[in-house]
Amino acid sequence: MSGTWRSLTSDELTGGTNHETAPFGTFAPNYLQRILIGIGKKTILKRGLFRGKYTQIILALSKGPLDIFFRDCAYRIWGENNLIEYGLLLNPDYNRADLDFLLTDASPDANFIDLGSNIGLYSQPMAKTAPIGKTISIDANPLMAKRLAFNANATGLNNLKIVSAAVSDADGQGSLIIRKDDVAIVAVEETSGGEIPIRTLGAILNEQKIKTIYGLKIDIEGHEDKALAPFLMNAPKAQLPKKIVIEHPEPDSDYPECTKVFAKLSYVLVGRSRNNSFYELMP
Fold this sequence. Notes:
Radius of gyration: 18 Å
Number of strands: 14
Pfam family, one: Methyltransf_21
Structural class: alpha/beta
Number of domains: 2
Region (Disordered): 1-21
Strand order of the largest sheet: 6-5-4-11-12-14-13
Protein name: FkbM family methyltransferase
CATH superfamily of the largest domain: Vaccinia Virus protein VP39
Organism: Pseudohalocynthiibacter aestuariivivens
Number of helices: 11
Largest sheet: 7 strands, mixed
Keywords: Methyltransferase, Transferase
C-alpha cells in the first residue's frame, strides 16, 4: 500500500447525519440537478479528474443525499468523499467492461462474491442478474455494509447477503485505515485489539452454504494475496470461481501470490481495465 494512510473517524465507521430512515426517492434529484447530471454524463465532466468536484456542485443544490439509479439498481449517493459514488452518478459506463465480463452468460441461479463491496457497485448488478442464486457482499467498514443494505432493499433484492468483516488468511481482529480521505480506499491492519472482525473467505462461504461460484470480484487495497490466494489453494474444485475480477497494483501486473495461484489452477488472464484484471478458469 502506497501513500499516506490514517485511521477512520467514528463518522466514517458509523455515519454522520442519519438519512437511512427516509424512503428511497425522498432525495430524488431536482430539476436543476437533473440537468447538471445529464450534462455530466455527456461531457468530459464524467471523467475521474472532474467527477468529485462536479458531484459536490450538484449535491450543493439540495439538502441531503441523492437517490439515483445505475444499471436499474437503486443507490443513495451521500456526497462524501467516495470515488465510487461519483462514477455511479455521472458515468453510465462506469466499470462497464468489468461488470459485463462478470455477468455475461451467468445463469439465474449463479452465485457471486463481492469482496470489498462498498455501496454495491458490483453487488447489486450481480444479485439482479442472478435472482435465484446468492450474492455474498463482504465489506470491512460497517457503514458501507449498512448503506449497501439500504440500497439492496430499495432495489428489491432478497438474494444479496451482506457480511460486515475483513477477510484474510486466518480469523482475528483488525483496524481500518483510509487513504486520500476516500471511503472507497479503505484497508485493514491486522491488530489483536482491533474492533473489526477478520474472517477467512472459506469460512464465510461455508457459513452461507455457497458450494459453487460463477463470479468473484475483489478489491481490498493490498490484502488480496492474504485473502484470496489461500482460499483458492484450499477450496474444493467445484467452489473455484469461474470468473475473477481483481484490482491490479500496477497497470501490467497483479498481486504476486494471486498470480502464482492463478497459474497453478489454470486461470487465464483475458483482459484488463484501468483498475482491474479479468481472469477466467479454464476447463
